[in-house]
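The freezer alarm interrupted the setup, so I double-checked each line after restarting. Inputs confirmed:
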Amino acid sequence: MFEKILFATSASATCDDAARVAFELSRKNKSRLNVFHVFGLPTRGFGLTYRDVRTGEETEVDENLVSLVKEEMTEYYEKLAKDHPSCVFETTTGVPHTEILRKARKEDASLIIMGAHTRPEDVGAMRHRVIAGSTMQKVAKSARCPVLVVSRPCVTCWSYFANIVVATDFSKPANYAFQFARNVAKEIGCRLHIFHCVDLGGEAEAGQAYIEQQLAEAQDKVQEKHIANMGDFDNYLVALREGVPHVEVLKYARENKADLIVMAHHTRDVDPEQALLGSTIEQVILRSACPVLSVNHPDKVDVSPYGPPRAHE
Amino acid sequence: MNKVILKQSGELQDHRGHIVADALAVLGARLELEDGFSLRGFLRMLNRYPDLQRLSDFLPGLTSKAWPDPERCSGSGLERLEFSRVVEIIGAPEPPKLEVYHILRGCMAGGSDEEIRGWQVESLLDVPIRLGTLRHVVFGDIVQTFRFETVCTLFDFIDGVIWQLAFHGAPQECALRR
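Predicted 3D structure, all chains:
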């Protein structure tokens, strides 16, 4: 299903859940797996020193150090890599999100897999740190291929997924997310839930008639943009709710035992730079029990062998 | 500072021993928990004082759910839950940061404490909750942790617990395909 998977990791326990998914998925799909770790921040663009992100100390980069870290990482994933002899381990120094995006472009990755955090977090601490400014956020925002974020243990293997929820707001990126979700659901034979939440932020006083009108419009859009493009895939459900989008997405996913939530990174047609903080997907990633997949670009969405003919895409 | 006691029945009792009618009026009061207080009492409080449910979008779903009786809830293996305030000073990477937040963690019989996100709410409903000490963590060349006696307000407690509960709700088993 995915020809090349890039697993961007901190090579620590915080990425263990993501590591299990990355190794399992690449083994099942016979994908080429790249395990990639970036450490340190360069002090200057072309400097030979870097600042360790944990201690803040300046250290000189030499080949020895890079290979030492690589060795440590290989050892850390020894158990998982045992059944996956072709996986490639690579380390580099630099700004993590820049290097990950560079690597994904260079390798033409079909999927990036990441954990949501670089250090173990207490739930309380997430309130301060959330995901804003994190490597994951920057990668998800700019990557041209889908980005799978795994922050909690994945109870079901990818190929045994029973329910995929795709949350749509009918924007262009949401359409790409839908295409990807439909293709994956068809490929692995699971149910696709097309979910839309009428955002009542600031319009709570509008009354029942307004909500019903919005829901009817949403139903028409689902029909036109998604159901018309289902092809011969018939294992789907449509769910419409009203409220706060991230709350409703999470509630729906929990009620329906979702194994995967697929969304666009910025679910409205906004300037990506303005979509940095507090977007729906970040709130969903923060609290979701299942992996969340972010799709922003049409690249890598219609990967062979799936992809039925579409009416208006 | 005025004191308010949160009872397992969900009632709030002020420092004169009267049952509080308006929870908003005592949000800033120093909190004490009745002996044996648990999350079940917390949910009862939210049902008794529905105004408090407006503090989080996830609360209406939690309070309207029909939770099983104590005898039908499976044990969690936890001795107690501890609600604490954490103050962290983080020097690197720059700029230096001070973070203050609340945590609700599980304490095992052996004394170790556990992140409770992986537990189902049902199994935590009847575990006693205690108010713990303040943890002051300094991330410098080495990580140093200090503990201090402190108090928390009713608002700190409600806000901290509902933030934690918003992370719960994972399905108990996988779904079957058609």
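Quick read of the result. The first strand of chain B starts at residue 3 and ends at 6.
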